[in-house]
Amino acid sequence: MQSGVKRTLLEQQPPPAGRDTHHLRSPPKSSFNSHLLLCGLLNYRPEEEKKGGNKPPEVTLVDDPTPFDVQAEMTLKTNFFATRNVCTELLPIIKPHGRVVNISSLQGSKALENCSEELQEKFRCEALTEEDLVDLMKKFVEDTKNEVHEREGWPNSAYGVSKLGVTVLSRIQARSLEEKRKVDRILLNACCPGWVKTDMAGDFGSRTAEEGAKTPVYLALLPPDATEPHGQLVRDKVVQNW
């Protein structure tokens, strides 16, 4: 697939000016000696904070006057492409029995249901490669810019599509680990923590941060002899069908 979206915009943009990012800096190499590596990404979208950030994603998309194509580009850049960048750098150095947890959402599953049958087949295809997935994510952004995303079979949820991308990316990465590093028994999953009371969700969140952390921590602390879940979407410690 061809895409008019520049890599520098979607994959290599620095953090918003004025934000305190010291806690996101790379840790010293010695810290990677642990057998456990939990990949986490702060999904911060500055335009939401200014324009209705204390609302669930589906409400924000209705009330936010930001053009949908801008929402799509910023959301995909933060939720999908930044997550992929982190995994690209860190997956090769994870030691045997490492655990990787990508934060996704059931909104991604809902977005999949609202895709056209053709897109659903592509996302569910076991032969889908990471490069194919990247092309699909770029195409969504390009289609929103050209105002043809609905005609092309995409749902009206940039957040949902971004989390759909994270879930599918996790499946692809898990499959790759199984093929290339099977003996290392590294487990990689995506999870939905639920709608948590954070700066983004505000009082609309139904769970405390502690409650939201239960599933990610459970997946991160799977015992060394565990073989599953792997490549799954998990919520409340239960694998989700999608």
Percent helix range: 40-55%
How far apart lie the N and C ends? 25 Å
Order of helices and strands: HHHHEHHHHEHEE
Using the CA coordinates, give the radius of gyration. 17 Å
Spatial sequence of strands, sheet with the most strands:
1-2-3-4
CATH architecture: 3-Layer(aba) Sandwich
CATH class equals Alpha Beta
Q: Let me know the number of strands.
A: 4
Poorly predicted parts: 1-62
What's the helix count? Answer: 9
Estimate the global geometry from the Cα principal axes: globular
Structural class: alpha/beta
The named CATH superfamily: NAD(P)-binding Rossmann-like Domain
**What fraction of the residues are assigned to beta strands by DSSP?**
5-15%
Mean pLDDT across residues: 80
What is the makeup of the main sheet? 4 strands, mixed
Number of domains: 1
According to CATH, the fold-level topology is: Rossmann fold
Can you tell me about this structure?
With 242 residues, the chain is of the alpha/beta class. The protein has a single domain (57-239), classed as Rossmann fold. Helices cover 44% and strands 7% of the residues. The chain contains 9 helices and 4 strands, in the order H-H-H-H-E-H-H-H-H-E-H-E-E. The protein has helices at residues 7-10, 46-50, 57-63, 68-90, 106-113, 117-124, 130-145, 158-180, 209-220, and strands at residues 99-103, 187-192, 233-235, 238-239. A 4-stranded mixed beta sheet has the order 1-2-3-4, with helices on both faces. The radius of gyration is 17 Å and the shape is globular. The relative contact order is 0.16.
